[in-house]
Write a structure and sequence with these properties.
Largest sheet of chain A: none
Structural class of chain B: mainly alpha
Number of helices of chain B: 13
Radius of gyration of chain B: 23 Å
CATH class of the largest domain in chain A: Mainly Alpha
Structural class of chain A: mainly alpha
Distance between the termini of chain B: 27 Å
Largest interface: A-B, 87 and 97 residues
Oligomer: heterodimer
Shape of chain A: globular
Radius of gyration of chain A: 23 Å
Number of strands of chain A: 0
Number of domains of chain A: 2
Chain lengths: ~280, ~270
């Protein structure tokens, strides 16, 4: 009773639940993450700068950024189509299709990696078809993009789907009655409504793709300057016990992904408004 | 919805066709490949790879790490969701952002930070050495990394449900003199039951498949610190493709089971609310 007076809280266990939350968060997340910063703080600026701007590392930023961008762009388009089909149409096997979207969340990335590699290698089913056209997929940036499309697709679909479900078809009908074409209805009425959710999905997929390792490492071929992604550079520095370089490069990646997260949160605030109806 | 004209019907089937083609090529075909490649040399070879001593060790370690991840994140998820949704306090937004951090961190970095915290270059290392505690290149490190990458998975599912439920029922029960544990058991838990199960399923899926973080921290000691995904990598890199796909098939089956449980949980949860 006395305690209650002091905190003016009726529901019990504030102290206990806060205590457990903060201490577990610190031990598992905050202290280990801080060790990254502490470790880099012991390095000189010059060493850090050299570690993160070596030409091989710079090339890896380029590969990581461009493949993640391409994959997320493909996912943004395909994600909207998939979400649209799942929300608006009725057709056989729809439930199974809906369930399959979640597969990349459930399937271990290493398994996805070796499966996609064997499919898209020049001897595989898909790779064989494309190699006749003179296009190699596995062990090229195209292969990396394919793996990242696999990883990122559920992010966009699951971001757009609930918004489309909430969208009132009344406006589309009105526009249709007034003679607007389907293309015009889509761009003028539907697209502005779903745009924040598409951007959220795009951002989440992009952030995940930047850091992805398991599925990419098999399909990439990992040639320095050509198909080496940044997480792989960190990995190879670690295998050579060059912790200083690995840590400095990791810090660059960390900053990049926090930046993506920050932008996503900005867009998401707007998206939540649309979902909850208050605008 | 406006009536279906001929044009919109064609568009409908084009879009469905594109969607099905994408899903079949990108999602179904990889699954089928794993199974067909695994069985390419017959059941006997498949069984040999699956019942191999190192594979069994890897299965056990994967289950152990997954079990710990689910257990630890459940404890955290319940307490964190309780603290965040039942009380008002300063810095709530910051707290939720910090809890979500592990999701945005690259798995490789997730492994690296534990190497830096407990490895040879850490100030903690002499202490751990003196107490003869091994974390890096050992099972505790694998568990820690797995817990890290799945850290927000359960709290993230519980928080929105508890938020929309509000605090009135708990307050009423507390004023009538119910004990904290009774309130949680009788009032809060029935609300979050399905969300909780959903979180557990997602957490288990990610935990059993985690590769990058575990790869950095494990040291790849076969029979000791090798999880199933790491075992797949070793076999594949040794060009033992059939065994690699056979071990993958175990993970595929686990993934499909998880997807089915997920659909059931989602369906039941929707039905009840």
């Amino acid at each position: 009773m006395k305690k209650r007076k002091k905190t003016k809280r009726v529901i019990p266990y504030f102290g206990l639940s806060m205590g457990v939350t903060i201490s577990m968060l610190s031990v598992i997340v905050l202290i280990p993450l801080a060790s990254l910063v502490i470790y880099t703080a012991q390095m000189s600026w010059q060493d850090i700068w050299e570690a993160i701007t070596r030409s091989r590392v710079m090339a890896s930023y380029r590969v990581s950024f461009l493949t993640a961008l391409a994959a997320s762009a493909i996912n943004a388009v395909m994600g909207v189509i998939l979400a649209w089909v799942l929300v608006r149409y009725k057709f056989p096997f729809k439930r199974i299709l809906d369930g399959m979207i979640e597969l990349p969340f459930a399937l271990p990335t290493a398994v996805a990696g070796i499966a996609l590699t064997s499919l898209t290698a020049d001897t595989g089913i898909i790779g064989g078809f494309f190699s006749k056209l003179g296009i190699s997929i596995a062990y090229t940036p195209i292969g990396i993009t394919v793996a990242l499309v696999f990883i990122g697709i559920p992010f966009v679909v699951r971001a757009v789907q609930p918004v489309l479900e909430k969208l009132d078809p009344v406006y589309e009908e009105a526009a249709g009655v007034m003679g607007a074409s389907r293309v015009r209805i889509f761009w003028k009425i539907i697209f502005p409504e779903i745009l924040p959710s598409v951007l959220t999905g795009f951002g989440l997929a992009f952030g995940r793709c930047l850091g992805e390792y398991g599925s990419v490492v098999f399909i990439a071929g990992n040639k320095p300057f050509e198909t080496e992604i940044t997480p792989l550079v960190i990995m190879s520095e670690l295998q050579e016990y060059d912790y200083a370089s690995a840590t400095a490069i990791a810090l660059v990646m960390l900053v990049a992904s926090f930046l993506v997260l920050f932008l996503v949160n900005l867009v998401q605030a707007r998206n939540t408004k649309i979902l909850t109806g208050g605008r | 919805m406006h009536e279906e004209t001929k044009g919109s019907k064609i568009l409908k089937w084009i879009l469905i066709g594109v969607s099905l083609l994408f899903v079949v090529l990108m999602l179904v075909l990889p699954l089928v490949t794993v199974i067909t490649e695994a069985l390419k040399s017959g059941w006997q070879v498949f069984w040999q790879a699956v019942s191999d001593e190192y594979t069994v060790d890897a299965i056990l370690l994967t289950l152990e790490a997954t079990g710990f991840a689910v257990l630890i994140n459940t404890v955290f998820g319940v307490f964190a969701a309780w603290a965040i949704t039942k009380f008002r306090f300063k810095g709530k937004k910051l707290l939720t952002t910090l809890i979500d951090l592990p999701v945005t961190v690259s798995p490789v970095i997730a492994g690296l930070i534990f190497v830096l915290t407990f490895g040879r270059q850490s100030p903690l290392y002499p202490v751990l050495q003196a107490l003869d505690i091994k974390i890096i290149f050992a099972v505790p490190g694998i568990i820690l990394a797995t817990v890290f990458v799945t850290f927000p998975f359960i709290s993230r599912e519980l928080i929105p449900v508890l938020e929309s439920q509000g605090t009135d029922e708990e307050e009423a029960a507390a004023l009538m003199g119910a004990k904290g544990t009774t309130i949680f058991r009788k009032i809060t838990f029935p609300h979050i039951k399905w969300a909780f199960l959903y979180g557990v399923v997602l957490c288990a899926a990610r935990a059993m498949g985690e590769f990058g973080a575990v790869s950095v921290i494990s040291g790849h000691l076969r029979g000791k610190t090798n999880t199933l995904p790491l075992h797949v990598e070793i076999l594949f890199n040794e060009f033992k493709y059939v065994p690699a796909f056979a071990v993958s098939a175990i993970l595929v089956i686990m993934a499909v089971v998880i997807l089915i449980i997920r659909s059931v949980v989602e369906y039941k949860g929707k039905k009840e609310s």
